[in-house]
Amino acid sequence: MDDTKATVLSILADLTGEDVSSNMDVNLFDEGILDSMGSVQLLLELQNQLGIEVPVSEFQRSEWDTPAKIVAKVENLQ
């Protein structure tokens, strides 16, 4: 597992208390794993740990709703 993916999964686990590494396509919002407050915390942690800046105004929930999409977005922004 690459560093970015491992870091994203670690952040998600810390924020949600759930290990989603076995299901990278689970919809975090539909399953109640992540909510809007969690999204803000996720963006702050991505900024702190990976230097990724995503203004909340540019956050499109549909682009960040699965672990796989989050990893892809982060990799594109690095």
From TrEMBL:
Pathway: Cell wall biogenesis; lipoteichoic acid biosynthesis. 4'-phosphopantetheine is transferred from CoA to a specific serine of apo-DCP. Its main location: cytoplasm. It comes from the Bacteria. Residues 1-78 form the Carrier domain. GO terms for biological process: cell wall organization; lipoteichoic acid biosynthetic process. The keyword Phosphoprotein applies. The modification O-(pantetheine 4'-phosphoryl)serine is found at residue 36. GO terms for cellular component: cytoplasm. The keyword Ligase applies. Belongs to the DltC family. This is D-alanyl carrier protein. It comes from Lactiplantibacillus plantarum (Lactobacillus plantarum).
